[in-house]
């Protein structure tokens, strides 16, 4: 009977332990200096606005990728810690059974409990002793068989835990690489946009502000004609509505809206979930967690994981998801308005709900 698990488990254990140690050594991507994006003199304002908007959109798309990779890496890191504990226990059990099997085999060899018990019974002057010897031999064989079966089970479990930990480690390394790549892209796009803004003249800055105001006014008109009721969900509120004269909203939706409105004026920070700065989905996820209803971290996961409702039935507290790739989110506060963290170099503010292309509406909290 072969009771040795071999040395392959030890090799797997050592290899995996070495791999785990490498995850902190993964280099981040090199920071490539972006080309000069400054517009030429005389460039139309709408073209400058489109260029800036495009760069910040790309930064926001990368931010969602960063947030998603960060969420995965966090969960995978926790899972890896748990798997390492499971793996250590499995290895300890396999080692203990290996030692026990060896000791039992040596004891059987030294004792030799008359494997031909039938012949011993016939030849013995004391049959009762022979029967006892035979019973001991049977028990020994049964014990060895049990040890062997348990050792096989422990060996299989060790293999399974080693494979699971190795896969999780591979996934974690990919998530960390994705996170680093997204971070580099965010930094590059923001740097490009900042270079453009730094080169603008005062009249261009004022002109862009007027252009944005005009776009906001147009968005209000678009919402009015969108078929949305645009009305606050006021059911005799309980003081949970947003500050600053906003609609009164009751229940958990009111708590989420109140929290989000209280963050107005705080800066946008990519990858941030407060308390001093937020990105778009960081604001909505923390607001709803504050209301007692945790929701997914990213706008894409919010779009995929929360109950969808029609635009015409949007209520305060609902989340409006923007763009075809679901890379921006704002919280509807009623009256055709959202509160959101718009983009880098801006602060949390209210805006017309139709100020960006709407993908759909989701409702947290049931």
TrEMBL record:
Gene Ontology molecular function: cysteine-type peptidase activity
Keyword Protease: yes
Cleaved signal peptide residues: 1-32
Positions of the UniProt region annotated as Disordered: 212-252
One biological process term in Gene Ontology: proteolysis
Stretches assigned to the NlpC/P60 domain: 250-366
Pfam family, one: NLPC_P60
Top-level enzyme category: hydrolase
Biased composition (Gly residues): 236-248
InterPro entries to which the protein is assigned, alphabetical: NLP_P60_dom, Papain-like_cys_pep_sf, PG_Endopeptidase_C40
Keywords: Hydrolase, Protease, Signal, Thiol protease
EC numbers on record: 3.4.-.-
Family label: Belongs to the peptidase C40 family.
Protein name as it appears in the record: Putative endopeptidase
Species for this entry: Streptomyces hundungensis
């Amino acid at each position: 009977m072969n009771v040795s698990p071999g040395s392959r488990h030890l090799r797997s254990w050592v290899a995996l332990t070495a791999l785990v140690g490498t995850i902190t050594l993964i280099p981040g991507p090199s920071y490539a200096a972006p080309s000069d994006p400054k517009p030429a003199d005389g460039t139309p304002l709408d073209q400058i606005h489109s260029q800036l908007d495009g760069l910040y959109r790309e930064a926001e798309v990368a931010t969602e990728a960063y947030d998603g990779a960060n969420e995965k890496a966090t969960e995978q890191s926790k899972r890896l810690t748990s798997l390492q504990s499971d793996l250590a226990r499995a290895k300890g059990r396999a080692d203990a059974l290996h030692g026990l099997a060896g000791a039992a085999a040596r004891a059987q060899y030294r004792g030799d409990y008359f494997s031909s018990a039938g012949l011993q019974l016939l030849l013995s002057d004391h049959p009762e002793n022979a029967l006892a010897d035979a019973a001991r031999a049977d028990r020994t064989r049964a014990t060895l068989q049990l040890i062997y079966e348990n050792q096989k089970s422990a060996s299989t479990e060790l293999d399974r835990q080693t494979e699971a930990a190795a896969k999780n480690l591979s996934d974690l390394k990919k998530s960390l690489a994705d996170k680093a790549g997204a971070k580099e892209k965010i930094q590059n796009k923001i740097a490009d946009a900042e270079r453009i803004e730094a080169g603008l003249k005062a009249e261009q800055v004022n002109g862009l502000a007027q252009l944005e105001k005009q776009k906001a006014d147009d968005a209000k008109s678009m919402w009015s004609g969108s078929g949305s009721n645009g009305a606050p969900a006021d059911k005799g509120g309980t003081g949970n509505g947003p500050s600053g004269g906003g609609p009164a909203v009751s229940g958990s939706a009111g708590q989420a809206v109140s929290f989000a409105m209280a963050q107005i004026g705080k800066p946008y920070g990519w990858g941030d979930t407060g308390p001093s700065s937020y990105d778009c989905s960081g604001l909505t996820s923390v607001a709803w967690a504050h209301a007692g209803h945790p929701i997914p971290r990213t706008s894409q996961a919010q779009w995929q994981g929360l109950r969808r409702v029609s635009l015409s039935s949007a209520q305060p507290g609902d989340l409006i998801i923007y763009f075809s790739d679901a890379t921006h989110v704002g919280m509807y506060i009623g009256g055709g308005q959202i509160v959101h963290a718009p983009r880098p170099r801006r602060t949390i503010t209210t805006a017309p709900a139709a100020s960006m292309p709407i993908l759909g509406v989701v409702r947290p909290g049931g």
